[in-house]
Amino acid sequence: MMDAQIGDIKKGFEIGRKGTNYWMWCACPKCGKERWVYLKHGIPVSKHCVQCREYVLTPARVRVHESRRGVPRKPGIIKSGKESHFYKNGKFKTVKGYISVLITGADMFFLSMSTHAHRVLEHRLVMAKHLGRNLHTWEIVHHKNGIKDDNRIENLGLTTIGSHIVEHSKGYRDGYAKGLADGRRKQIVSLIYLWARDAEMATDKETEDYIIDHLQKIRISKETIFSDGSRADMAKRILEKI
Protein backbone atom coordinates (compact mmCIF):
# COMPACT_ATOMS: atom_id res chain seq x y z
CA MET A 1 0.00 0.00 0.00
CA MET A 2 1.88 2.98 -1.33
CA ASP A 3 -0.30 5.70 0.21
CA ALA A 4 0.22 4.43 3.78
CA GLN A 5 2.17 6.61 6.20
CA ILE A 6 4.44 5.50 9.03
CA GLY A 7 2.27 4.87 12.08
CA ASP A 8 -0.97 4.21 10.21
CA ILE A 9 -3.11 1.48 11.76
CA LYS A 10 -5.56 -0.62 9.77
CA LYS A 11 -7.62 -3.72 10.31
CA GLY A 12 -6.54 -6.93 8.63
CA PHE A 13 -9.33 -7.08 6.04
CA GLU A 14 -8.57 -3.48 4.98
CA ILE A 15 -5.05 -4.39 3.85
CA GLY A 16 -5.85 -7.72 2.23
CA ARG A 17 -5.22 -9.92 5.29
CA LYS A 18 -7.61 -12.15 7.18
CA GLY A 19 -9.35 -11.18 10.37
CA THR A 20 -10.10 -7.92 12.13
CA ASN A 21 -6.84 -7.63 14.08
CA TYR A 22 -4.90 -4.39 13.85
CA TRP A 23 -1.73 -3.85 11.81
CA MET A 24 0.66 -0.88 11.76
CA TRP A 25 2.71 0.49 8.84
CA CYS A 26 6.29 0.49 10.19
CA ALA A 27 9.80 0.98 8.85
CA CYS A 28 12.68 -1.34 9.67
CA PRO A 29 15.22 0.60 11.80
CA LYS A 30 18.14 -1.20 10.05
CA CYS A 31 17.33 -1.12 6.32
CA GLY A 32 14.39 1.29 6.28
CA LYS A 33 12.05 -1.14 4.53
CA GLU A 34 8.40 -0.28 5.14
CA ARG A 35 5.78 -2.99 5.73
CA TRP A 36 2.69 -3.89 7.72
CA VAL A 37 3.43 -5.27 11.20
CA TYR A 38 0.93 -7.11 13.37
CA LEU A 39 0.03 -5.37 16.65
CA LYS A 40 -0.16 -7.29 19.91
CA HIS A 41 -1.58 -5.33 22.84
CA GLY A 42 -1.04 -2.19 20.76
CA ILE A 43 2.70 -2.88 20.21
CA PRO A 44 4.33 -4.12 16.95
CA VAL A 45 5.49 -7.71 17.37
CA SER A 46 8.75 -7.00 15.54
CA LYS A 47 10.79 -3.87 14.89
CA HIS A 48 12.99 -5.38 12.17
CA CYS A 49 12.01 -6.91 8.84
CA VAL A 50 12.49 -10.62 8.12
CA GLN A 51 15.87 -10.12 6.37
CA CYS A 52 17.37 -7.88 9.06
CA ARG A 53 15.96 -9.97 11.87
CA GLU A 54 18.44 -12.76 11.08
CA TYR A 55 21.35 -10.44 11.88
CA VAL A 56 19.96 -8.95 15.09
CA LEU A 57 21.46 -10.87 18.01
CA THR A 58 18.98 -10.79 20.86
CA PRO A 59 19.92 -12.58 24.12
CA ALA A 60 17.71 -15.51 23.16
CA ARG A 61 19.29 -15.73 19.67
CA VAL A 62 22.79 -15.59 21.18
CA ARG A 63 21.98 -18.61 23.34
CA VAL A 64 20.68 -20.47 20.29
CA HIS A 65 23.91 -19.78 18.33
CA GLU A 66 26.05 -20.80 21.31
CA SER A 67 24.16 -24.07 21.76
CA ARG A 68 24.63 -24.86 18.05
CA ARG A 69 28.38 -24.30 18.42
CA GLY A 70 28.51 -26.50 21.52
CA VAL A 71 29.18 -23.70 23.98
CA PRO A 72 27.97 -24.85 27.42
CA ARG A 73 25.29 -22.70 29.00
CA LYS A 74 26.33 -20.78 32.09
CA PRO A 75 24.55 -22.17 35.14
CA GLY A 76 22.55 -19.74 37.24
CA ILE A 77 23.85 -18.89 40.68
CA ILE A 78 21.43 -20.37 43.20
CA LYS A 79 22.13 -19.41 46.79
CA SER A 80 20.82 -21.66 49.51
CA GLY A 81 20.92 -21.83 53.28
CA LYS A 82 22.33 -18.82 55.10
CA GLU A 83 23.51 -17.24 51.83
CA SER A 84 19.95 -17.02 50.49
CA HIS A 85 18.09 -13.74 51.02
CA PHE A 86 15.01 -15.81 51.89
CA TYR A 87 16.80 -17.34 54.88
CA LYS A 88 15.21 -16.38 58.22
CA ASN A 89 17.29 -18.35 60.73
CA GLY A 90 15.78 -21.51 59.27
CA LYS A 91 12.25 -20.61 60.46
CA PHE A 92 9.00 -20.20 58.59
CA LYS A 93 5.30 -20.33 59.42
CA THR A 94 3.30 -23.26 58.05
CA VAL A 95 -0.14 -22.95 56.47
CA LYS A 96 -1.66 -24.14 59.77
CA GLY A 97 0.02 -21.34 61.73
CA TYR A 98 2.80 -23.34 63.43
CA ILE A 99 6.50 -22.41 63.32
CA SER A 100 8.81 -24.84 61.53
CA VAL A 101 12.54 -24.77 62.35
CA LEU A 102 15.63 -26.35 60.82
CA ILE A 103 17.59 -28.72 63.06
CA THR A 104 21.29 -27.91 62.99
CA GLY A 105 24.31 -27.99 65.25
CA ALA A 106 23.57 -28.74 68.89
CA ASP A 107 19.99 -29.80 68.12
CA MET A 108 21.07 -32.83 66.07
CA PHE A 109 20.16 -35.03 69.06
CA PHE A 110 16.49 -34.41 68.15
CA LEU A 111 16.99 -35.36 64.50
CA SER A 112 14.75 -38.42 64.86
CA MET A 113 11.77 -36.08 65.40
CA SER A 114 12.37 -34.22 62.15
CA THR A 115 11.23 -34.77 58.58
CA HIS A 116 13.45 -35.86 55.71
CA ALA A 117 14.35 -32.17 55.25
CA HIS A 118 15.61 -31.96 58.88
CA ARG A 119 12.68 -29.78 59.92
CA VAL A 120 10.54 -29.99 63.05
CA LEU A 121 7.75 -27.91 64.56
CA GLU A 122 9.22 -25.47 67.05
CA HIS A 123 6.77 -26.19 69.88
CA ARG A 124 7.67 -29.88 69.76
CA LEU A 125 11.38 -29.05 69.80
CA VAL A 126 10.94 -26.70 72.78
CA MET A 127 9.10 -29.40 74.75
CA ALA A 128 11.70 -32.04 73.81
CA LYS A 129 14.52 -29.78 75.03
CA HIS A 130 12.61 -29.16 78.28
CA LEU A 131 12.18 -32.90 78.89
CA GLY A 132 15.66 -33.78 77.65
CA ARG A 133 14.41 -36.51 75.30
CA ASN A 134 12.81 -37.05 71.92
CA LEU A 135 9.02 -37.01 71.80
CA HIS A 136 7.04 -40.02 70.66
CA THR A 137 4.76 -39.70 67.64
CA TRP A 138 1.68 -40.23 69.81
CA GLU A 139 2.63 -37.39 72.17
CA ILE A 140 0.96 -34.05 71.43
CA VAL A 141 2.20 -30.62 72.53
CA HIS A 142 -0.77 -28.39 73.36
CA HIS A 143 -0.79 -24.56 73.27
CA LYS A 144 -2.62 -23.50 76.43
CA ASN A 145 -3.67 -20.05 75.18
CA GLY A 146 -4.53 -21.31 71.68
CA ILE A 147 -1.89 -19.15 69.96
CA LYS A 148 0.01 -21.53 67.69
CA ASP A 149 3.18 -19.45 67.35
CA ASP A 150 3.53 -18.73 71.09
CA ASN A 151 6.10 -21.41 71.85
CA ARG A 152 7.14 -20.38 75.36
CA ILE A 153 7.49 -23.42 77.62
CA GLU A 154 4.99 -21.81 80.04
CA ASN A 155 2.37 -21.95 77.26
CA LEU A 156 3.00 -25.58 76.32
CA GLY A 157 1.65 -28.79 77.78
CA LEU A 158 2.32 -32.43 76.91
CA THR A 159 -0.70 -34.63 76.28
CA THR A 160 -1.91 -37.54 74.17
CA ILE A 161 -4.03 -37.51 71.04
CA GLY A 162 -7.22 -38.55 72.87
CA SER A 163 -6.78 -36.06 75.72
CA HIS A 164 -5.97 -33.31 73.23
CA ILE A 165 -9.22 -33.93 71.34
CA VAL A 166 -11.21 -33.90 74.59
CA GLU A 167 -9.63 -30.59 75.67
CA HIS A 168 -10.39 -28.92 72.36
CA SER A 169 -13.95 -30.28 72.31
CA LYS A 170 -14.56 -28.95 75.83
CA GLY A 171 -13.18 -25.56 74.79
CA TYR A 172 -15.49 -25.44 71.78
CA ARG A 173 -18.53 -26.39 73.92
CA ASP A 174 -17.70 -23.83 76.62
CA GLY A 175 -17.10 -21.14 74.00
CA TYR A 176 -20.42 -21.91 72.29
CA ALA A 177 -22.33 -21.83 75.58
CA LYS A 178 -20.70 -18.55 76.61
CA GLY A 179 -21.41 -16.96 73.23
CA LEU A 180 -25.04 -18.11 73.37
CA ALA A 181 -25.50 -16.71 76.89
CA ASP A 182 -23.82 -13.41 76.01
CA GLY A 183 -26.00 -13.02 72.93
CA ARG A 184 -29.17 -13.74 74.93
CA ARG A 185 -28.18 -11.23 77.64
CA LYS A 186 -27.44 -8.58 75.03
CA GLN A 187 -30.84 -9.09 73.43
CA ILE A 188 -32.63 -8.98 76.78
CA VAL A 189 -30.84 -5.80 77.86
CA SER A 190 -31.85 -4.01 74.66
CA LEU A 191 -35.47 -5.15 75.11
CA ILE A 192 -35.52 -3.99 78.73
CA TYR A 193 -34.29 -0.54 77.76
CA LEU A 194 -37.01 -0.28 75.13
CA TRP A 195 -39.63 -1.71 77.49
CA ALA A 196 -38.74 0.79 80.22
CA ARG A 197 -38.80 3.72 77.79
CA ASP A 198 -41.62 2.94 75.36
CA ALA A 199 -45.18 3.17 76.70
CA GLU A 200 -46.57 1.09 73.82
CA MET A 201 -44.25 -1.84 74.59
CA ALA A 202 -45.49 -1.83 78.17
CA THR A 203 -48.91 -2.98 76.95
CA ASP A 204 -47.39 -5.58 74.59
CA LYS A 205 -48.08 -8.87 76.38
CA GLU A 206 -45.94 -10.93 73.99
CA THR A 207 -42.87 -8.76 74.55
CA GLU A 208 -43.36 -8.76 78.32
CA ASP A 209 -43.73 -12.56 78.42
CA TYR A 210 -40.59 -12.96 76.28
CA ILE A 211 -38.55 -10.79 78.66
CA ILE A 212 -39.88 -12.57 81.78
CA ASP A 213 -39.24 -16.03 80.28
CA HIS A 214 -35.64 -15.26 79.35
CA LEU A 215 -34.89 -13.47 82.61
CA GLN A 216 -35.96 -16.60 84.47
CA LYS A 217 -33.61 -18.65 82.26
CA ILE A 218 -30.67 -16.59 83.50
CA ARG A 219 -31.88 -17.07 87.08
CA ILE A 220 -33.47 -13.71 87.87
CA SER A 221 -36.29 -14.34 90.34
CA LYS A 222 -39.93 -13.48 89.85
CA GLU A 223 -39.80 -11.18 92.87
CA THR A 224 -37.35 -8.97 91.04
CA ILE A 225 -39.49 -8.98 87.90
CA PHE A 226 -42.83 -8.30 89.61
CA SER A 227 -41.62 -6.07 92.45
CA ASP A 228 -43.41 -2.78 93.03
CA GLY A 229 -42.21 0.38 91.38
CA SER A 230 -42.03 1.98 88.00
CA ARG A 231 -40.80 0.22 84.86
CA ALA A 232 -37.59 2.25 84.96
CA ASP A 233 -36.88 1.12 88.54
CA MET A 234 -37.64 -2.47 87.61
CA ALA A 235 -35.33 -2.28 84.58
CA LYS A 236 -32.55 -0.81 86.71
CA ARG A 237 -32.83 -3.61 89.29
CA ILE A 238 -32.81 -6.27 86.58
CA LEU A 239 -29.81 -4.79 84.80
CA GLU A 240 -27.85 -4.79 88.06
CA LYS A 241 -28.36 -8.56 88.35
CA ILE A 242 -27.47 -9.45 84.75
Q: Mind sketching the topology for me?
A:
Elements: E1 9-11, E2 22-27, E3 34-40, E4 43-44, H1 50-53, H2 59-68, E5 92-93, E6 99-102, E7 119-121, H3 122-131, E8 139-143, E9 156-160, H4 161-197, H5 199-202, H6 205-217, H7 222-225, H8 231-241
Antiparallel strand pairs: 1-2, 2-3, 3-4, 5-6, 6-7, 8-9
Structure description:
- This protein is of the alpha+beta class and 242 residues long.
- The chain folds into 3 domains: 9-68, no CATH class; 87-151, no CATH class; 180-241, no CATH class.
- It has helices at 50-53, 59-68, 122-131, 161-197, 199-202, 205-217, 222-225, 231-241, and strands at 9-11, 22-27, 34-40, 43-44, 92-93, 99-102, 119-121, 139-143, 156-160.
- Strand 5 (92-93) and strand 6 form a beta hairpin.
- Helix 4 packs antiparallel against helix 6 and helix 4 packs antiparallel against helix 8.
- The longest helix is centred in the last third of the chain and has 37 residues, at 161-197.
- The termini are far apart.
- The mean pLDDT is 75.
Summarize the structure.
The protein has 242 residues and is α+β, with helices and mostly antiparallel strands. It folds into three domains: 9-68, no CATH class; 87-151, no CATH class; 180-241, no CATH class. Helix content is 38%, strand content 15%.
